[in-house]
Request: fold
Amino acid sequence: MRFIDEYRNPELILKLSRQIKQEVADRSYRLMEICGGHTHSIYRFGIHELLPQNIELIHGPGCPVCVLPLGKVDEALELVQSNDVIFTAFGDVMRVPGSKQSPFEVKAKGADIRMVYSPTDALKIALEHPDKDVVFFAIGFETTAPSTALTIKQAHDLGVSNFSVFCNHVTVGPPLRSILESEFFDLDGFVGPGHVSTVIGLDPYRFVAEEFSRPIVVSGFEPTDILESILWLVRLINAGAASVENQYVRAVKSEGNLAALAAMDEVFEERPSFEWRGLGYIDSSALRIKDTYIRYDAEVRYKVKQICSPDPEGAICGEVLVGKKKPEDCPLLGVTCSPEYPVGALMVSSEGACSAYYTYVHRRSTRSGSGVS
Reply:
């Protein structure tokens, strides 16, 4: 298939691998891939095995389900259990554990919790059930925020009164800044997220190069995309250059998606502060609904109270999420934590680092008898 097979060409993949090995200098390269989609591709296609040993790939906080702290799931479930509502959420969210139970477990006990594929599905349910209040659990970076904004606008235009949004949309720039300002991280460059960049463009990453002198290359998700982006980063690092580059030109425009950005700007504003798993509270790192559309804000309608819940004992979800540790460092992985019985969000999400490692590395190694069972 066009745009898939041509980017998985074995000859091109091996050629890029050889070029990287030829161009690396006698130094280490610590590169963070921000997007969880990249993490899955790296493990799925064995990209990490095609790189020289002095290139280390570090997984960053780019999984939209994983970045939500445990307390946000608890807040959502408290909203469901305290009010007579139809609660809707994306499939990944349904299995994310709260401090005591997941949405699926609460659903099994009788709560009306439904999986949807988009916020417009939730609005449709509200239109079909005018006697019931419907809440959509909105999560994700700027990738999914425009669809939520447009759905809120549609509800407003239709005069729908039984629909609201529990808004937990986050933005990619502030956590990236938090990582760069941390004394813990010593990073040489970034593989920039592809999906979110189709919306926001390249400008939100300029501070990485201009203030922190680190290169960032926005990348596609196929093997040749990621390897080419790493090759570009190696060249930039060797030259001592810091810039924002766009490898994913077939999908990402420098200015982003202006219509999507306009919809977000009309409906949302920055939150003063928001809690991130593994990073704590970060200023202006999330979105909330503007007063113009406040009738669709579930936090206001149901007076949602903030809940702070620690990660499960023994789990290192936060440290893995921000690249301080690797999935294989977690003592629970493959023992008490698996996709079938997840302890943390990183094992649930299709973009979670633990899910990727378990699926593409851990299970293979246990089958061959060389891994920890």
About this structure: The longest strand covers residues 133-140. Residues 61-222+229-317 form a domain with the Rossmann fold fold (CATH 3.40.50.11740). The first helix runs from residue 10 to 23. Residues 89 and 115 are 5 Å apart (CA to CA).
